[in-house]
Design a protein that fits this description.
This protein has 388 residues and is an alpha+beta fold. It is 27% helix and 38% strand. A hairpin with a 2-residue loop joins β15 and β16. The two termini are 86 Å apart.
């Protein structure tokens, strides 16, 4: 009896436990979850962080509580009185007004050459000797013209005397006068030819002529040699340049011509002397723009007594514009997007918009830009956080 009674109690207990488990499962299934996790949900909502930024069209807003606020600095743009500059390439050239191309006055063969490339010469110094048949012909023509002029002068004197005595017709006197005028004209032409060739007082039938230096200077080009036959008197045998004063010729792009003003200061640097800056001023601005390069030649003169400036040296020339009011921003404010420069402008508290700008130059740790106005505030630190 006791064993049977215990068995029924155990069965009843097990049934009761199963019913409780089933009831709990039904409650978990049909009762909404938030009814059981409201406190946890509220805690999660209170601990949720604000988004770093919010985009509204073109505007970027940084909400309160965003960690970005502590990394972004905003400041007004700065207006300075700035003189901008441009650096352009250049080269050292000889002054055309101090350069002479030496031409052979007659055809012939070079017998002697007394100078070499790079030699310094003095005015009147012998340069070369030319053996020329043309020279001999020119001298012979001059001597013939002198003889003819002398003969016709004697004939004219006799005709004049006879005419006065009544022994010569007027027509014969006029013919003698005409012959003398023609002979005189021919003599002038022959002597002028000798004047072009050289000193006609020293040319008496010789075939050789000596070329002398027309100026003091340096042989900067030499295009002949002993034995060379000259058959083109328009082609220079050599070039002499006086290098006591030289040009530095700068090639300025068309878009930078506003920086170039006659008489304005420039700074010239030479590759050969990297630690020296030569101050000068604009002397000549070419009125012709080169069609192929779209560049303009600008020349600056320098005294060169010690020969520091060598022809064809490479140079860089810095031109300066007149001072004017410009917008200057820190370089850290510039953001690059697709090779274009931008800044972030504050349009409202903690609200920014991207604006394109055109950097013109770097100066004293700042960047001179076009595209901003006085009073605007921009992001000067942390802009990379907005530049996605």
């Amino acid at each position: 009896m006791n064993r049977f009674s215990l068995s029924r109690r155990q069965i009843f207990s097990a049934a009761t436990a199963g019913a409780l488990v089933l009831f709990g499962a039904l409650i978990y299934r049909f009762v909404p979850e938030k009814s059981f996790s409201r406190q946890e949900t509220v805690q999660a909502q209170e601990g949720r962080r604000a988004p770093p930024l919010v985009r509204k069209g073109k505007a970027i807003f940084i909400p309160e509580g965003s960690p970005y606020r502590s990394h972004i600095a905003v400041a007004p743009v700065e207006i300075r009185n700035v003189s901008l500059s441009r650096i352009v390439p250049g080269a050292v050239e000889a002054d055309p007004a101090r350069t002479v191309r030496v031409l052979a006055p007659v055809n012939g063969r070079v017998g002697e050459l007394n100078v070499e490339l790079g030699d310094n010469v003095k005015k009147g110094q012998p340069l070369a000797t030319i053996d020329s048949g043309d020279l001999a012909q020119a001298v012979a023509d001059a001597e013939k013209a002198r003889a003819t002029a002398k003969l016709t002068k004697s004939a004219l004197d006799r005709a004049t005397g006879l005419n006065k005595a009544g022994g010569l017709a007027l027509r014969d006197l006029e013919q003698a006068q005409n012959d003398f005028l023609q002979a005189t004209s021919e003599l002038k032409r022959a002597e002028a030819r000798l004047d072009v060739i050289g000193d006609n007082s020293k040319l008496t039938g010789q075939r050789k002529i000596t070329l002398n230096a027309p100026i003091d200077g340096t042989i900067t080009a030499l295009d002949t040699a002993p034995g060379d036959f000259i058959d083109n008197t328009t082609s220079p045998m050599m070039t002499i340049s006086n290098l006591d004063r030289v040009w530095v010729t700068a090639s300025v792009q068309e878009k930078d011509l506003s920086f170039v003003q006659k008489g304005e200061r420039v700074e010239v640097s030479l590759v050969a002397y990297p630690h020296e800056v030569f101050a000068g001023k604009v002397e000549i601005i070419s009125q012709l723009l080169e069609a192929d390069t779209r560049r303009n030649k600008v020349r600056i003169a320098f005294d060169n007594p010690n020969g520091m400036f060598k022809l064809n040296m490479f140079a860089t020339v810095r031109f300066f514009s007149p001072p004017s009011q410009r917008v200057v921003i820190p370089p850290s404010a510039l953001m690059m997007v697709n090779d274009a420069s931008n800044v972030f402008v504050e349009v409202a508290p903690w609200t920014f918009e991207r604006r394109p700008v055109d950097p013109e130059a770097d100066i004293n740790g700042g960047a001179v830009v076009v595209g901003l106005t006085a009073g605007q505030r921009i992001v000067v630190r942390g802009g990379v956080l907005l530049n996605d």
